[in-house]
Design goal:
128 residues, two-stranded antiparallel ribbon
Length: 128
């Protein structure tokens, strides 16, 4: 009887901890095998890669690898920016969020942008 009560209490405690984990913002975001950390500023969200990323920059006659820490900016007006891909847009849906740039899309499946104490902007940026 005592062991059964301990198991029940342990199960309840684990469920409570798991439930609280859903309320906390993600500490890392993933897409295409790249892990990003989030920060917020007055303009929106910024995802910064934790490790250097290699992207191929192509010209009409050549392709050259660019290696470095990557930042993707997600603005309050649903605009997005990436150093290599330029200006784009971002949106969220029930299945996650994505940033679209000319020639490149970053998809973050089953993830949600969130910063502690920050106003949520994604309500205005639904995917069409």
């Amino acid at each position: 009887m005592f062991r059964k009560s301990v198991r029940i209490l342990r199960t309840i405690a684990i469920a409570a901890v798991m439930g609280l984990a859903w309320l906390m913002p993600a500490s890392a975001y993933f897409t295409d095998d790249t892990e990003y950390e989030i920060s917020c500023n007055a303009d929106g969200y910024v995802l910064t890669s934790k490790q250097p990323v290699t992207r191929m920059v192509t010209t009409p006659v050549d392709a050259e690898p660019m290696v470095g820490i990557e930042k993707i900016y997600f603005g309050k007006s649903c605009d997005a920016f990436h150093k290599l891909y330029g200006k784009g847009k971002w949106c969220w849906a029930n299945g996650g969020f994505l940033a679209e740039f000319p020639g490149r899309t970053f998809g973050f499946a089953r993830q949600e942008l969130s910063c502690p104490g920050a106003e949520a902007y994604q309500g205005n940026c639904g995917c069409q």
